[in-house]
Amino acid sequence: MTYKNKTIKKHARGNWFVRVRHDGKYISIYGRTKQDTYEKLKVIADKIEQEKFMKMFAELTTTQFIESGMARPKTEQVKQYTFQEWFDEWPTSYKGNLRATTIKGYRSLFEIHCAELREMKLTDITNIMLAKVLNTMAGCKQAKDQMKSILKQMFAIAHNDKLIDNNPTLNLPRPKATPPSRKRQALSPEQEQRMIEFALKDEKYEPLLICLLQGLRKGEMLALRPNDFDFGKNTLRIDESYDEQNPSDLMTKNADSNREMPMFELTRNILIKYKDYPSTERIFETATTPRLYKLFAELQEQAELPKITIHELRHTFITRCHEKGIDEMIVQRWVGHKIGSAMTKAVYTHISNDKEQEYIDQMNAKTK
Fold first, then answer.
1. Phi-psi region of 206 (alpha: psi -120 to 50; beta: other; left: phi over 0)
2. Which one is the CATH code of 78-182: 1.10.150.130, 1.10.8.60, 3.40.50.2000, 3.20.20.70?
């Protein structure tokens, strides 16, 4: 089945997908059935085509005015957007490849830090106002840099589309660094062992154990299916991420997140029971985020663990790897982090399988 020369294909998992290229990036579209994928493709492909047409029309109109020696008149029909209205339109109209969860994260940032700007017209917002937003933000430098990047993109597009005469993000000062309110934590080896011992007593804790033992993100754990397991090679394939708020959006965090990593011995002992489970069904379908939070709080109390987040189980895995002297490139590949430059990747691929097996044996030793 095709639409506008884009062919829908069947994924190894049993669902259907198609990729559409737009502005130099690929948009991946997934569906449970071919027809479902086709309907989604139609919406996105038509939208892309319309955007291309409008861009060509705008360029053609501009060229005509220039050639005739006339300045392009400023339309009086330009909508006067408020900050909130423009934010609501910008991600879907101009950033069509953004994941729903990414937009949700942006929205959370703006609701917390841009409340005073929400009802203001874009034309009334100044450089000083935006600088104040950045400098009064609490939290880490990464969050401030992300906010600055989002603001610059929003206002650059608004300026390009003649919604504002001046771009207030030009020469926006670098946000001041503030110490994080809480440092990331990891379990000590003794605490980790206690968690494993308590969690093994009840299979309801298995999703949390998998995050700890394999260093997975919560969404990666929730997306696991039996056809991700290779019990012959003892490997896990990670190429999807699940969010119950957006179940049709299965894209991982980024391209580097797609990986194949070792399935450690204790993980194998947990997952072997799902070997004959329907290959395309998620094995942790009942593990909703609220339930996981409740289970983890319960487990922390039973095992007398510090109050850490589920994501910090992933930090614990990375910490154990570093403590055991495992090569940084190996750790980055296992957890799906970006591996430096192209040169670094090329060197990394030549790390011997025997050396990696030594590291796997070290990680297995902690659970024996």
1. alpha
2. 1.10.150.130
Residuewise pLDDT in 10s, the chain (368 residues): 666 667 888 877 777 778 877 776 777 787 778 887 878 878 787 777 777 656 665 555 555 544 454 444 444 456 789 999 998 888 777 665 667 777 788 888 888 888 899 999 999 999 999 998 888 887 667 778 888 888 998 898 888 888 898 999 988 877 776 665 667 789 999 999 999 999 999 999 999 999 999 999 999 999 999 999 999 999 999 998 988 877 777 777 677 788 999 999 999 999 999 988 988 889 999 888 889 999 999 999 999 999 999 999 999 999 999 899 988 888 998 998 876 545 444 444 444 556 778 888 888 876 55
Number of alpha helices (DSSP H) and beta strands (DSSP E) in the chain: 14, 8
Give the single-character DSSP code of 142: H
Q: Give the separation between CA 247 and CA 289, rounded to whole angstroms.
A: 13
Q: How far apart are alpha carbons 176 and 316 in whole angstroms? A: 30
Q: Cβ–Cβ contacts within 10 Å for residue 347, how many?
A: 13
Q: What is the DSSP letter of 227?
A: G
For 183-204, b/e burial (b = at least 16 CB within 10 A) is eeebbeeebbebbbebbeeeee
CA pair distance 32, 14, nearest whole angstrom = 8
Rounded to whole angstroms, how far apart are CA atoms 219 and 217? Answer: 6
Task: Name which of 208, 184, 211 is nearest 303 in CA terms.
Answer: 208
Angle of CA points 84, 93, 45, to nearest 5°: 160
CATH code of the domain made up of 189-365: 1.10.443.10
| DSSP 8-state code for residue 327 | -
CA atoms lying within 13 Å on the CB side of residue 25: 12
Calpha distance 260→182 (Å, rounded): 32
Residues 6+ apart with CB under 8 A from 294: none
Cα 133 to chain centroid distance, Å, stands at 24
Three-state secondary-structure class, residue 31: strand
